[in-house]
Amino acid sequence: MKDRALRLSTLALSLAGIFVPAAASADTTQFSTFRASATLLAQAQSNQFVVYFPLDEATLDEQARTAIAAAAQEYQRTGSASVSVRGHTDTSGNAAYNQALSERREQAVTDELIQQGVPADAISAVALGETELAVPTGDGVVEAENRRVEILVAQPAPPPEPAPPPEPAPAPAPQVAEPEPEPERERGLFSVGAFYGYNLEDEVGGTSHLGGINLGLDFAVTPWLGAGLEQAGFYHFDTGNDGFGGRTAGSVDLLMGTEQIAAHFGGNIGYLYGAGFDDDFFAGPEIGLRSGPFLAKVAYDIPFNRDLDEGIIATTLGFGIRF
Fold first, then answer.
1. Parallel, antiparallel, or unpaired for β 188-199 and 148-153?
2. DSSP secondary structure string, 227-269?
3. Are 315 and 195 in contact (CB under 8 A)?
4. Of 191, 194, 269, 279, whose CB count within 10 A is highest?
């Protein structure tokens, strides 16, 4: 009985020596085939790289370093701001052991990235053990696809869309120069001056003279038409009946010139009275000139009771105030 048990134990040990190395060899062969295809698939996404590890190992072989070098080149090509490194295991060991193994794998890849020129402060690394499996399995399962370190090269943000060109400012409306309002014209004129008249025929058929003061009030009805009133008081002398008299007249005038220099031509009608006259109405022409405050007028008054050549030449020389 004891000999039979000894023979069975020897047979079991012999079989274990044959099949365990064969299983490990089979996993290594399958891992090499899987890693070649999976690495190519992961690198097809230009910003994602995966480094796979043999069972229970954290060392980098030539193929792993090639994948890491490709990730470093992608970082440098894009000018990316960061690189993410995440270490994983399968579930073939216990959780604590797998956590430590994923840390060693993550550290190995991080160190190699730094060797390839990626700044350490651009790398964010984390070890996840068996918590995030690429292929979900039960506990204690050997799975080559889960024994990995993932490298993600963050793509830089796309440049902002160029701002649309600003709308052209609307063309300013043509400035139409408004005519400046004409300054308010002073239309009135009050004047006072010395009055002299030469009478071509007095009551006794001779000539005589008139001297005194003349007050005038003129108003421009329009820029070219004016109306006026005059009142002269004088002394009539060189006649057989010397004495005081007066001349009251109204006028309508055509105006020419500017506010500073102006001339007028018009007609008078009025009443002449006083010592040495046969009191009567008169009418006749008048011309005048004004320069600044000074003015001069000459009128020819023809009394209605005389002939045309028996009139009175009436002159005024004085100054005026505009209002």
1. unpaired
2. EEEEEEEEEEESSTT-EEEEEEEEEEEEEEE-SSEEEEEEEEE
3. yes
4. 191
